[in-house]
């Protein structure tokens, strides 16, 4: 090493150390995770990971990555205007390969709490606007989009498939502002949909309400999605509703651990009003 190259090498080493120390232990845990990876079909991959210490607690994450270059035209919504059904039931009826629970619903009267349109048919209008539902998922054969609800006149949109839910988590690579309220700041099971910088659609479920899975608040969920490469992301209904379905993966297709039966198994699904799915 000569006198000219030594300072350059030293500067590079110092910069490398700063970058390493600048990463949190949580981001390193997610980025370096040896996920259990199961290919579902070409361009569709299921990943499962258990973390002994992520955000200071045990976490269980299941996600499906869908290559939109190959499968954009096969992403759909399924919904019922009044009847609540388990995610696996919706998925089976729709011929889904993979599915995730959708938006918030009316537990007393059934149907979605927020606006849903499926194949150009309005299934439910918004019963009462809330700050929570501030994100729009728009689906047609040309594109899958996640937008702030303020950016889209969704009731007048020509898009054939629309789901209003939220809160919005990431938009154009930037974290969305989250209100300081118990829904956002307390830990719960969570479901989210994201579009990555590599044009992949992610269905992600975080388990919770169990000593093997603490669940996440929305800030933690946002960080996790950002580390997974999300450019756009939105929360959907969580808690006991959080369900990820992969056809044939288990007896009922559920791969996470829905919490409604208070058991860490695949049986505790809560009936929901709608799902987002990839048709087989």
Care to describe what's here?
Residues 95-278 form the Phosphodiester glycosidase domain. This is Phosphodiester glycosidase family protein. InterPro entries: NAGPA. One of its GO terms (molecular function) is hydrolase activity, acting on glycosyl bonds. It holds the Pfam family NAGPA. With 280 residues, the protein is α+β, with helices and mostly antiparallel strands. It has one domain (25-279). The protein has 6 helices and 17 strands. It has helices at residues 5-22, 25-31, 68-71, 87-94, 182-185, 218-227; strands at 36-41, 44-54, 57-67, 75-79, 96-101, 116-118, 121-124, 135-139, 144-148, 161-165, 168-171, 174-175, 190-196, 200-206, 230-236, 244-246, 274-279. The strands form 3 sheets. An 8-stranded antiparallel beta sheet has the order 1-2-3-14-13-15-11-12. It is globular, with a radius of gyration of 20 Å. Residues 13-22 have low confidence and may be disordered.
Structural class: alpha+beta
Q: How do the SSEs run, as a string of H and E?
A: HHEEEHEHEEEEEEEEHEEHEEE
E-strand count: 17
Q: Note the overall shape.
A: globular
State mean pLDDT (0 to 100 scale): 93
Low-confidence stretches: 13-22
The biggest sheet, with number of strands, parallel, antiparallel or mixed sense and barrel status, is:
8 strands, antiparallel
Helix content: 10-25%
Q: Strand-residue fraction?
A: 25-35%
How many H/I helical runs?
Answer: 6
Return Rg in Å: 20 Å
The main sheet orders its strands as: 1-2-3-14-13-15-11-12
Domains counted in the coordinates: how many? Answer: 1
- CA-to-CA gap between the ends? 59 Å
Pfam family, one: NAGPA
Domain Phosphodiester glycosidase: 95-278
Signal peptide: 1-25
Keywords: Glycosidase, Hydrolase, Signal
């Amino acid at each position: 090493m000569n006198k000219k190259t030594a300072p350059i090498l030293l500067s590079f080493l110092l910069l490398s150390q700063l970058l390493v120390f600048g990463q949190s232990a949580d981001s390193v845990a997610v980025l370096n995770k040896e996920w259990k990876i199961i290919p579902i079909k070409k361009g569709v991959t299921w990943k499962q990971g258990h973390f002994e210490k992520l955000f200071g607690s045990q976490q269980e994450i299941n996600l499906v990555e869908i290559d939109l270059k190959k499968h954009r035209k096969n992403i759909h919504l399924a919904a019922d205007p009044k009847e609540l059904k388990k995610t696996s039931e919706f998925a089976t009826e729709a011929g889904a390969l993979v599915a995730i629970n959708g938006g918030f619903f009316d537990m007393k009267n059934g149907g979605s709490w927020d606006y849903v349109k499926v194949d150009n048919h309005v299934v439910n209008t918004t019963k009462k606007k809330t700050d929570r539902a501030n994100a729009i998922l728009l689906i047609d054969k040309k594109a899958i989009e996640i937008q702030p609800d303020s950016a889209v006149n969704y009731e007048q949109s020509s898009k054939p498939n629309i789901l209003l839910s939220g809160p919005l988590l990431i938009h154009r690579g930037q974290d969305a502002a989250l209100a300081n309220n118990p829904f956002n700041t307390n830990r719960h099971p969570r479901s989210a949909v994201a579009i990555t910088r590599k044009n992949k659609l992610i269905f992600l479920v975080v388990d919770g309400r169990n000593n093997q899975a603490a669940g996440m608040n929305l800030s933690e969920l946002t960080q996790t999605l950002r580390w997974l490469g999300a450019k756009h992301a939105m929360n959907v209904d969580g808690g006991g509703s959080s369900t990820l379905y992969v056809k044939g993966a288990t007896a009922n297709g559920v791969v996470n651990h829905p919490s409604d039966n208070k058991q860490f198994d695949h049986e505790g699904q809560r009936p929901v009003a709608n799902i987002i799915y990839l048709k087989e």
